[in-house]
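Q: What changes when S-adenosylmethionine is included in the input?
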Amino acid sequence: MSDYRNIDKIFDKILNSEEFISSPVYFEKKFSNSLLQNHAKVFLYLLIKSIKAKSVLEIGTYMAGTTKIISEAIGDSGLVISLESNKQRENLNIEEIGTWDKKFQENTMLVTSTSNDFFNISKFNEKIWFDFIFVDGDHTYTGALTDLLNSARYAAPGAIIVVDDAIQPPVFSAVKDFLVLNKDWREIGGKFNEANAREYIEPTSSNNSIPFLILEGPSKHFIGPRNYSVYKEFKNSLSGLNIKLDKPSEQGKLYSRFLISHLSGGEDGGMSIVDHVNDIEKNQQEINIILDKEFISHNENTIKVDIHLFFETQAKINNKLSLLKPPELI
Ligand SMILES: C[S@@+](CC[C@H](N)C(=O)[O-])C[C@H]1O[C@@H](n2cnc3c(N)ncnc32)[C@H](O)[C@@H]1O
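A: The predicted holo structure follows.
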């Protein structure tokens, strides 16, 4: 079975659809605040609708024009979180959203934060895997690469990441290097492949009709021989991590390193490193990593924890733990 849901067919269908060809004028008027070209607006709307995305993250709200497109595409049972680092836009965007239909106001959450802070500190991280992520914030190489690396950590199984302004060289290079590091992701236009990963590739989008590079993630999240990271901030206490599997495990060892930063939130201040090894039995469906000592925050500041996980089986086959949902702190 393929590790991908294979959106190539959906992609072709959208580009050849009557709606894609005939709606740009309507979209231009309706979503005039969006910085996207009109065809790109229609494409984004149709793609989100076609894959039935329900949880969407947008990095870079600007005037909330594209946020509105996303909000309408996901419908009232969805949630779009849109991040904007520029505080001066906050009130303007709240006003803008106040002019929308109520049901679309309700499925939209604006967050004034840099993407980095959001990913590293956000309380939303706790439970959410995003079905769709629109990367359109920091267009520098390191900014775009960091956004992609973080996005992949919070992408749902089979998620789609759409990167805007693909032909900007720093953005294109960031996608190229992201794919080198994340071999389980693919770009759907086939613009990158093993043979040319080391060579210069002229910046281009996934298709000439749109300005985007479109990335598809693997259909499952795994903890395997390559590292899997969980970064969380927690308020009161940390005893360990709960991992629910969607397929019974093979016998093996789960290695974890907890980097616990309690510079201001803990009793004694500083940083703790706790290493753990769990013996995993064949057919286990749930794993609890329990720390020898509980960490407690004694004041308003939170304690942060980064957990690095590896799984290894002796036979080196089926050496992956397939996750049912995001691991949760306990
Ligand atoms: C190109 S505009 C976004 C356009 C919008 N998505 C649209 O389609 O209309 C980029 C926005 O991202 C914001 N931004 C830049 N770096 C950011 C970051 N690291 N996190 C969140 N927002 C960021 C900028 O302030 C700017 O408003």
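Observations recorded in class: Residues 180 and 198 are 10 Å apart (CA to CA).
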